[in-house]
Specification:
The complex is a heterodimer of chains A (372) and B (506).
Chain A lengths: L11 H26 L4 H14 L1 H26 L7 H18 L5 H30 L3 H23 L22 H7 L12 H18 L1 H11 L1 H6 L4 H17 L1 H10 L10 H11 L4 H24 L5 H17 L5 H17 L1
Helix pairs in contact in A: 1-2, 1-15, 1-16, 2-3, 2-14, 3-8, 3-11, 3-13, 3-14, 4-5, 4-6, 4-11, 4-12, 4-13, 5-6, 5-11, 5-12, 8-9, 9-11, 13-14, 14-15
Chain B lengths: L3 E12 L2 E12 L3 E6 L5 H8 L7 E6 L2 E3 L4 H6 L2 E4 L11 H6 L10 H17 L14 H14 L4 E5 L7 H16 L3 E6 L2 H7 L2 E6 L2 E7 L5 H9 L17 E11 L5 E11 L2 E6 L6 H8 L7 E6 L2 E4 L7 H6 L2 E4 L3 H5 L6 H5 L10 E2 L2 E2 L1 H14 L16 H14 L4 E5 L7 H16 L3 E5 L3 H7 L2 E6 L2 E7 L5 H8 L4
Classes of the chains: A mainly alpha (372), B alpha/beta (506).
Amino acid sequence: MSSAVDKSKVPWWVSNLIVPLVNLTLALLVSALFIFIAGENPYQAIKLIIYGSFGYIEGFAYTLYYTTNFIFTGLAFAVAFHCRLFNIGGEGQAYLGGLGVFLVAINFSFLPVPIVWILSIAGAFIFGAAWAFIPAYLQAKRGSHIVITTIMFNFIASSLMVYLLVDVIRDMKQMGPHTVALPKELWLPNFKDFAALFGIKIRYSPLNASFLLAIAASFFVWFLVWKTKWGYEMRAVGHNTQAAIYAGISPYKNIIIAMLISGGLAGLLSINEILGVHHKIVSGFPAGYGFTGIAVALMGRNHPIGIFPAAFLFGILYQGGSEVTFDMPNITRYMFVAVQGVIILFSGALENLFRPQIESFFVNRLNTKVKA
Amino acid sequence: MVSPILQLTNISKSFGHVQANKNINLTINKGTIHGIIGENGAGKSTLMSIVYGLYQADSGTIKVNEKEIKLKSPRDSIENGIGMVHQHFMLVENFTVLENIVLGFEGEVVFGKNLEKAKIDLKNLCETYNLNVDLDSVISDLSVGFRQRVEILKSLYRGAEVFILDEPTGVLTPQEVDELFKILRSLKEEGKTIVLITHKLNEIMDLTSEVSVMRQGEIVGHTKTETTNREKLAEMMVGRSVLLRINKSKTKRGDVAFRVENLTVKDDLDVTRVKNINLEIHAGEILGLAGVTGNGQTELLEALSGIRKVESGEIFLNGEKISDSSELLNPRELKEKGLAHIPEDRQRMGLVTDFKASENLIFGYHDQEPYSKSSIMNENKILDYSKRVMEEYDVRPRSPHLMTSNFSGGNQQKLILSRELNENPKILLIGQPTRGVDIGAIEFIHQRLIDMRDKGAAILLVSVELEEILSLSDRIAVMFDGMIVGERVNEDVTDRELGLLMAGVA
């Protein structure tokens, strides 16, 4: 109460651009300190990150490949969050989504390829949504907290998939816990093929047509949340459940809808990973993208327009980070997990650390301008 | 001898483009109860927040006991003997009264001697001022009235000489208000000074010796209370003359539009709050439901509007049975049948404060044409409609895109009223229609209700303000302990009779 900043007077670009940028800069400074303590030159490390993620075309393609995954999981978290549901289960929902993609693609491979793709997308969405349904139901009807249940369902998903990959759907000619590969014609067009169309020869990178699906999903989420009745009702339930009941909006229904869409979006990650990259289910393919998606969504303020740059930023970190660990022996992969952690810390938990100061600074400046 | 304890000179404060206080000059004399009255948004709370050190003034000086001081934080004000009782209490719910009061002033790391001493001091204070607070009870167990006393006690303990009370009666029952006024008078007798911020004229006339009127950020008059009256004050507040009693013609009663038979309702804790109630409301009639807060009115309203489950009994709308214990009718379906409900606690239940104004203006009607079609919202239509009703109901500022939380309390209310009344409902359930609404708006709301009645709507008016019930209703029913204990035609009833019914003694 003692901070006298009137929220309505803060220009949007201050709270949505300046504040995140300041937080990000601080996070990078702290990360630089880590790198320095580890005995490497932070300046060189940053140069490597930038070179690794932008400096050559395959590197940039890798960055966009990671970005694709983060968009899906970030959107997934954001949709649920608009209904004030903290869906931590993106990891498990994405894993199950993979099962959906594989089963659909392998069983319908006799159909024309574009139709198989569309059915696979539906499969990914439905399996991811189904995995989110149980926690959603438990939250809506029984009040079991969604954070607890979704986190448990990540473990269950992991165990279930290991069981299936070892005992049920494993490629029996192999030792590894993965399925047989999908027929080659079902693989999503790779960026390499796309470049070849224009006569540009590049090396392989995992970037594929799923990136376009991620963009489409961003539009879908924007439209759903802000332009439709469902989004309106979800937000009403999220902000004020009591008022929603007064207006005849069912909290139960909306909790379930929000979680189904959220789980479905997380499931789409497997389109990128399975139709686009691995072409089979490999054990542990969600690889933490589900969790990082939470940070992406929070950093992007749960809006597709914010999620895209946030996902891109994490894409840069993933790709540039692997470049750094390759070239700098003192920096391990875990170092970059720490860097991510610092970014999450500054843009999530400490998000309001400097917000009041920055906002009042700009509000005061604008005021003096008006008076002058 | 009259000596000033608090002097404000040329205080100005603006938030962005809005000038909340303009060159305020105010002198408050020691040992008086000084009223500051004004409509919502007149700048009363801002001014007092400056005095309490929550905001810093852009210009001007503050003197306490004729000594100029700088107030940078509430701590400075407390040190200068200024205490504040906020509209929303600043108490830790799961701490005891004692723990709340010493919070920040413990003076020792391990509780022991100081705490014991504090306890003795506080007991003495309680006795002197008749506060009657049990120091060991936990705040969450206390009623609103007692929580307020804890706030007063807290200020006393910290050595306050000047007490600022911001709309202290807004959350109290009539009995609690009486108790509070007694306490305030005894504070005054002990030489303390009280600044009472309110928009209720009765309170000013009852309690204060001097009054200052604020309008649009300025003080428009100071006067001795004994030399003024309610009408004059109201006129100063609003800047034009106001009808305090509404003119209404005799009702043209139609058929029974709404009927409740043997209705029983339980609250969330499974306590029966509405006991076998029967009600009938005719078209073109306002039925006033009087009663002290907490006698089942809230649960009744919620059950009638489809929010709360009906335990037993039946509800009929134009002869059609709409609800019984076997199923809960959806509030939205009721709206389609022409029943509108304006809930008592509007900010909590009637609005989503994180929505834009335009989004709240269609809340509950959002899936009807033209606001949405095949589940897609039609933003242009919503915006046109929002602009129109905001104009018609004088909602300020007229910005449909502004977050609802950025509107003042009174204007948030207008958003809800305009939304529900604009649909021209056949049946209107309305709880505390003017709670937290300023005088100019009260007149407007009352006139609207009468207009709707004249157009043939059946209105159930639930209010704890007896005056409101008397000035609007055609018939009056009194609710006590979950039952209707009496029903009268307005013309044949006296305040005294209603008061006795409300107290459950008649």
